[in-house]
Specification:
Largest sheet: 3 strands, mixed
CATH superfamily: Rhodopsin 7-helix transmembrane proteins
Strand order of the largest sheet: 2-1-3
Radius of gyration: 22 Å
Helix content: over 70%
CATH class: Mainly Alpha
Number of helices: 11
Distance between the termini: 68 Å
């Protein structure tokens, strides 16, 4: 790609997790299984949330958004990574690299904001149940979800646009599983201080602010639960939060380890492991966490799939 930005690199090479052949096959099998679980699990959650009228409430509206995001978040990274592991096609064009970076930040940021909206929903449901239908009306939920998508889109434009303006002269090997911003900046033959500062400031602000908001909502929730005299009532109220809290912890532990540390050489392996956790493992575990720990989702899944089996039996038996 020759042009005004003096870029001579037309494609990058993603080094991935390992160069050892037998480990590549092992990782391919494991990640492929997780990717299938991600697709099947989140499609099931999305289908159930859409079909079952009992789940047409704010909590599951946001869960549907989360499942949709997890499908495409993982799909933006994992197929290319699997191709690199199986057929060693590690090349990615300059344009595709910038596009991958955009979708990675867009879907990742929106994911964090949806999780934050879900924490607010749980706060209102537990701490202010009498005003729940007003505070979490359909119009409010749509506005919250739309805001998450818009903020994620605007945020995701910053890093790819600035990175696309940098000159890449000779080095083209990205020591990561995807076109991640930090290892990519190390290849630029120009001063990247502004880019690195924006990654730390903007990504750090979003990560810390959303995490603090979630943390504060759960402080209020726990304080409210302590005032409930019935232990059964406390367990029932908190059980509605455990799935969300588990997903939040998985997401933010990986996110903080990947983005809030400096771009040192010895932090690259940690960053790659965090990226695998965020894009491969967590999206596959989310539907499992929500279906196993949520009675309404389990009942809806049973009703849909067992109902289809009964209908099939009736059809097979005939009149």
């Amino acid at each position: 790609m020759e042009g005004g930005n003096q870029t001579s690199v037309t494609e990058f090479i993603l080094l991935g997790l390992t160069s050892i052949p037998h480990l590549k096959m092992f990782f391919f099998i494991i990640f492929f299984i997780f990717f299938l679980f991600n697709l099947l699990g989140n499609i099931c959650i999305l289908t159930v949330v859409i079909i079952d009228l009992h789940l047409h409430i704010p909590m599951y509206f946001f869960l549907g958004n989360l499942s949709f995001l997890d499908i495409f978040y993982s799909s933006a990274i994992v197929p290319k990574m699997l191709a690199g592991l199986l057929i060693e096609d590690n090349r990615i064009s300059f344009q595709s690299c910038i596009s991958q970076m955009f979708f990675y930040h867009f879907l990742g940021c929106t994911d964090a904001l949806i999780l934050t909206s879900m924490s607010y929903d749980r706060y209102v449901a537990i701490c202010n149940p009498l005003r729940y239908n007003v505070l979490m009306a359909k119009s409010v939920c749509i506005l919250l979800a739309s805001s998450c998508w818009v903020i994620g889109f605007v945020y995701s434009l910053i890093h790819p646009i600035l990175a696309s303006k940098l000159p890449f002269c000779k080095l083209n090997q990205i020591n990561h599983i995807s076109c991640e911003i930090k290892p990519l900046l190390k290849l630029a033959c120009a001063d990247t201080y502004l880019n690195e500062s924006l990654v730390t400031i903007i990504s750090g602000f979003l990560a810390v602010s959303t995490f603090l908001f979630i943390f504060i909502t759960y402080v209020f929730i726990c304080t409210h639960l302590l005032n409930i005299r019935s232990s059964q009532g406390r367990r029932k109220a908190f059980s509605a939060c455990t799935s969300h809290l588990t997903v939040v912890l998985l997401y933010y532990v990986a996110g903080f380890s990947a983005y809030l540390g400096p771009a040192r050489e010895d932090s690259q392996e940690q960053s790659k492991r965090a990226a695998v956790l965020i894009t491969v493992i967590t999206p596959a575990l989310n539907p499992l966490i929500y279906s196993l720990r949520n009675k309404q989702v389990k009942d809806a899944l049973k009703k849909i799939f067992l109902g289809k089996q009964v209908l099939q039996r009736i059809t097979d038996q005939g009149p």
